[in-house]
Amino acid sequence: AQKVTQAQTEISVVEKEDVTLDCVYETRDTTYYLFWYKQPPSGELVFLIRRNSFDEQNEISGRYSWNFQKSTSSFNFTITASQVVDSAVYFCALSSFNQAGTALIFGKGTTLSVSS
Amino acid sequence: EPEVTQTPSHQVTQMGQEVILRCVPISNHLYFYWYRQILGQKVEFLVSFYNNEISEKSEIFDDQFSVERPDGSNFTLKIRSTKLEDSAMYFCASRRGVDGEKLFFGSGTQLSVL
């Protein structure tokens, strides 16, 4: 069975602080994909990143960076110099590689509140 | 960027009534999904649809639910006899079909069952 655990329910930081959102996953598949989505207060789901299980290179995109460690089944997300606009719910998700139609399984999400 | 379109954005219905939530996936996409999110909770998978049939469904997707792609562009979710616990945000999503490709989500339909 596949499972995604986001142990942090809520995180509050002050602007310009760095913050890391944790994601731990479980899967029996040897190949799989991991995702992060952002859900701002307006409610839509915004794609942030996709990573396949073959690629353990960390990725940086502006203030965002992702640390994928297969050995610990973790795919953590760091926001550097957080801003108020980063306030949102962040979901980590997992999907199998073998079936193109397989659904994403989401974690419960981490609510990030950034205050000025 | 192309968008998945959902209508209506809000739907209020009485318990026991039938509702149909509508979605227009991105035109060259082949895989379609419905997810729901009860207020404050995680996004839960309901069903996936490919080649005019359900390819996968969750335990939530019981006999009260059905999906249809009636005309090659729309993708609908029908709830036959709504219950209070069906109140949630329902998201439609689609993707072209390449393994691991990201899902494009619609902006959701907020369903309130009274």
Count up the helices of chain A. Answer: 0
Largest sheet of chain B: 7 strands, mixed
Regions with little confidence, pLDDT below 50 for 5+ residues of chain B:
none
**How many E-type strands of chain A?**
12
Mean pLDDT of chain B: 92
Distance between the termini of chain A: 41 Å
- Quaternary form: heterodimer
Largest sheet of chain A: 6 strands, mixed
Q: Helix share of residues of chain A?
A: under 10%
Largest interface: A-B, 25 and 26 residues
Note down, in words, how this protein is organized.
The complex is a heterodimer of chains A (116) and B (114). Chain A is mostly beta strands. Chain A contains no helices and twelve strands. Chain A has strands spanning 3-5, 10-14, 19-21, 24-26, 32-39, 46-52, 59-61, 64-69, 74-79, 88-96, 105-106, 110-115. In chain A, the strands form three sheets. In chain A, strands 2, 5, 6, 10, 11 and 12 form a six-stranded mixed beta sheet that branches. Chain A has a four-stranded antiparallel beta sheet with strand order 3-9-8-7, with no helix packed on it. A two-stranded antiparallel ribbon of chain A has the order 1-4. The N and C termini of chain A lie far apart (41 Å). Chain B has strands spanning 5-7, 10-13, 19-24, 31-37, 44-50, 53-57, 65-68, 75-79, 88-95, 104-105, 109-113. In chain B, a hairpin with an 8-residue loop joins β9 and β10 (104-105). The interface between A and B is medium-sized, with 25 and 26 residues.
Write the layout of secondary structure elements.
The complex is a heterodimer of chains A (116) and B (114).
Chain A: E1 3-5, E2 10-14, E3 19-21, E4 24-26, E5 32-39, E6 46-52, E7 59-61, E8 64-69, E9 74-79, E10 88-96, E11 105-106, E12 110-115
Parallel strand pairs in A: 2-12
Antiparallel strand pairs in A: 1-4, 3-9, 5-6, 5-10, 7-8, 8-9, 10-11, 10-12
Chain B: E1 5-7, E2 10-13, E3 19-24, E4 31-37, E5 44-50, E6 53-57, E7 65-68, E8 75-79, E9 88-95, E10 104-105, E11 109-113
